[in-house]
Amino acid sequence: MMKGKTLFWIVLFALLAAGGIGLSLLRGGGTRAVISVDGQVYRTVDLLAVAVPYELTVETELGRNTLLVSQGSIQVLEADCPGQDCVRQGAITDGAIPIVCLPHKLVIQIEEP
Amino acid sequence: MRRTKKLVFMALLTALELVIWVIEGQIPAPVPVPGVKLGLASVITLTAMAVLGRREAGCILLARILLGALFAGSFSAVLFSLAGGVLSWLVMGALLGLFPEKLLWVVSVFGAIGHNAGQLLAAVAVTRTPSLLWYGPALLAAAIITGTFTGLGATYLVRALRVYADGKTERRE
Fold it and tell me: What is the pLDDT along chain A (113 residues), one digit of tens a residue?
């Protein structure tokens, strides 16, 4: 009895986790980086068209983030926030995981063009 | 459990949870994914809920969040802790009585899902970027994995702590 219930939950959670990972991998493609601040699109970058990596500074009244845009990837180099979570995260290359700088309301997501 | 004993016990659990939370915050996350961490502090919340009760666990959680903000946080960090913590507490509180102690880890997984959902919704509200919801499935998978481990941790801790809990709480087998 007990064993059956345990097994049920293990199988259910394994399926859910696999589904979650699968869904986010499905969204894993994409080459267009959308940089938004406070819900407004700040700039869109076609990451495939980047020949030479360059720095991009996003400065608003909330704070400043310096991004490094390279071919196929984008990352936050510097941020004047206390947390530094977005800097530590490093570069993202696909849409599976966004970069979020909460104090500056900055979101970087990669989407299909 | 006598009132004084309970108070001391709760204070101890609060201190434990705070220390675990602060130390975990100092360790770089094994996966560089925003919002994902093991959430070891929730072992104490769930344990307190199983051994002492929902209200007591809520008090310990709130005390940890507020004290944690003093030690290593900012106002917005408190907001996020609250969004995740309160939702997780509600979910675990609602489910705790429905599962036998052996399946405490299931309660923990649902609590972790509630925690991540609360934080994701807070992130959407703060950044006003609804497309962040696409991140939900990945956070769901993360919650299932972390919730299982913290839940197993809580299971062992509950077993060990029953000795001190005077048998006032019922044993669920």
Answer: 557 899 999 999 999 999 999 998 887 778 899 999 999 999 999 999 999 999 999 999 989 999 999 999 999 999 998 778 889 888 999 888 899 988 899 999 998 87
Distance CA B21, CA B78 (A): 13
CB count within 10 Å of CB B76 equals 16
In a domain, residue B171? The reply is no
A:B CB pairs within 8 Å: 92
Q: List, as one string, the DSSP characters of A27-46.
A: TT---EEEEEETTEEEEEEE
CATH of domain A30-111: 2.60.320.10
Does B9 contact chain A (CB < 8 Å)?
no
B144/A16 touch (CB, cutoff 8 Å), yes or no: yes
CB contact under 8 A, A89 and B34: yes
Q: Note whether B131 contacts A: Cβ–Cβ < 8 A.
A: yes
Looking at the structure of chain B, the number of domains it has is: 1
Q: Which residues of A touch B100 (CB under 8 A)?
A: 2
The neighbour count for residue B75, using CB atoms within 10 Å, is 8
Query: What CATH number does the domain containing B29 carry?
Result: 1.10.1760.20
Phi–psi pair at B52, nearest 5 degrees: -105, -45
In a domain, B173, yes or no: no
CA distance B9 to chain A (A): 31
Q: Which of A100, A101, A109, A111 to mutate to test the interface with B (most CBs of B within 10 A)?
A: A100
